[in-house]
Design brief:
- It is built from 9 helices and 12 strands.
- It is of the alpha/beta class and about 290 residues long.
- The protein has a domain of about 200 residues: NAD(P)-binding Rossmann-like Domain (Rossmann fold, 3-Layer(aba) Sandwich), CATH 3.40.50.720.
- Strand 1, helix 1 and strand 2 form a beta-alpha-beta unit.
Length: about 290
């Protein structure tokens, strides 16, 4: 019998692309249980979450669900904390109470304060110090998961995620290029763009190896948002028409502070560099 793999946040970018990846790479390996937020709300009371888990009986939990609205988290702290910390902790507790269960909890580069020099990469064991409430809620989620299931769970941090879902930075840049509009892009935010296809491969490797603790699931290298936008334009053969206005992050006047440099070192030796991953992503779209 195939192990039952529960995917929370299944309607998100990673949730959707991971399902598609598994169905292509190993269609008979798992019995997938893919649940959107409306079907499995991480902010629900503990007894509701436990009841769902008792009914579903997953062998492996991939928690890709989260409250990801960085600015909204500043004003909706209770909801962010419930979805990003309390809920994941309950999932980990449930797994720890049963032998042979395993949980992968997706976290974020925003647990770091971003004060490293450009070119220096954060490693999994380094100190955390989030500068906004979204990052703090995700950090508390990491702590809740690892405290509840230290030998049956792993925290997989990722960053600047992009995939087939029509939202996020890639879609913003693409739309502005197609519409021939000038896009305001920050030049002072640095990170590691990560393709959901790459992260999906890392998740499958993690399920197979079952490590515990904290890993960084990201592509290799680092870049600024402006340089990333320029590379997207080049991949789309729109570089000659690309129009970007370089601005500092402070000019966006966002409710939540952003860390400057959250570039991370991948825990996976075969991680693609972010440029190659971006090229592969756009080639994969052409095949659809």
């Amino acid at each position: 019998m195939s192990p039952r793999l529960l995917i929370t946040g299944a309607n998100g970018s990673l949730g959707q692309d991971f399902q598609a990846y598994v169905q292509r790479a190993m269609p008979d390996e798992f019995e997938l249980i893919s649940l959107a937020r409306s079907e499995f709300d991480l902010s629900a009371p503990a007894d509701v979450l436990r009841s769902h888990l008792d009914e579903l009986k997953p062998d492996i939990i991939l928690n890709s669900g989260a409250f990801t609205q960085v600015d909204a988290a500043e004003s909706q702290q209770g909801l962010a904390l419930a979805a990003n910390a309390r809920g994941p902790g309950i999932l980990a507790e449930w797994a720890a109470e049963r032998p042979d269960k395993y949980m992968i909890h997706i976290s974020t580069d925003y647990v770091f304060n971003g004060k490293k020099e450009i070119g220096q990469l954060y490693e999994p064991q380094e100190s955390t110090d989030p500068v906004n409430y979204y990052g703090l809620s995700k950090l508390k989620g990491e702590e809740s998961v690892l405290q509840a299931a230290p030998e049956q769970a792993v925290v997989l941090r990722t960053s600047w995620l992009f995939g087939t879902q029509a939202r996020g930075f890639h879609s913003f840049v693409h739309k502005n290029l197609i519409d021939a509009k000038t896009a305001k892009i920050t030049h002072d935010q640095v990170g590691t763009p990560t393709w959901t296809g790459s992260l999906s491969k890392m998740i499958l490797q993690t399920i197979n190896d079952r490590p515990c603790g904290v890993l960084h699931g990201c592509n290799a290298g680092y870049t600024s948002r402006l340089e990333q936008a320029q590379w997207i334009a080049q991949c789309l053969n729109l570089s000659e028409d690309a129009r970007f206005e370089s601005i500092p992050t402070r000019d966006l006047k966002l409710p939540a502070q952003r860390p400057v440099n959250t570039a991370m070192k991948s825990s996976f030796n075969d991680a693609l560099d972010w440029k190659s991953a971006t090229e592969m992503f756009f080639r994969s779209l052409l095949k659809r």
